[in-house]
Design brief:
Elements lengths: L2 H13 L4 E4 L4 E5 L4 H11 L8 E4 L2 H5 L10 H6 L5 E6 L6 H4 L4 E6 L3 H10 L3 E5 L11 H8 L5 E2 L12 E4 L5 E3 L2
Parallel strand pairs: 1-7, 3-5, 4-8
Antiparallel strand pairs: 1-2, 2-6, 3-6, 4-5, 8-9
């Protein structure tokens, strides 16, 4: 079966409210539709993660993720766009009405345009941004291999997209878009 077939199958699962495990630049992620409240609840429960932490959204292109942001107060948009695609997630002001599970109850949301070929392909076929959070229980090390994901989540996720991480040692750097401050270093 072709890779495109697997990406289409994973996108169907996501559109149906499911959770998909997939490779990213540094670790395997757990993805869901950011506009599906039941999928968000299920993802948080699966990770034993509190809603107050917020979630990162990834996209294949900046347009997919920036629709979740309010850009009126962002003065360094060119620097943000220049860092994408790549392993930098930016915390930007959230657009009004965004689900508190995505923002952690704050007025901001974390966004990244992924450089991982397969993860970007999944966003393209899905047709928009996806929640992508590390494949681990809160407080445990993230899965870096498909086998590790299968051992930890085989009965909990709806689809495991075969793939490999692209060699980054740490998850993406997280930066504040308004101050430029590094919140998590890669």
């Amino acid at each position: 079966m072709s890779t495109d077939w697997h990406l289409r199958q994973a996108a169907r699962v996501l559109h149906g409210g499911g959770i998909v495990a997939h490779a990213t630049e540094a670790v395997f992620g757990l993805a869901c539709d950011p506009l599906n409240p039941r999928a968000l609840d299920r993802l948080l429960s699966l990770k034993a993660r509190t809603a107050g932490k917020g979630l990162i959204l990834i996209g294949a292109e900046s347009e997919q993720v920036l629709r979740y942001a309010s850009l009126s107060s962002v003065v360094n948009l060119a620097a943000i766009l220049a860092s994408w695609p790549g392993p930098v997630s930016w915390v930007l002001p959230a657009r009004a009405g965004l689900d508190a599970r995505l923002t952690g109850g704050r007025q901001s949301v974390a966004l990244r345009v992924t450089a991982h070929t397969q993860a970007a392909g999944l966003c393209r076929i899905f047709g928009g941004a996806l929640v992508s959070t590390s494949a681990n229980l809160t407080g445990h090390r993230p899965a870096r291999t498909e086998l590790s994901v299968r051992r930890r989540f085989r009965l909990s996720v709806d689809y495991i997209l075969s793939g490999q991480v692209e060699g980054h040692r740490n998850p993406s750097q997280i930066r504040d878009a308004l101050s430029g401050r590094i919140l998590r270093n890669a």
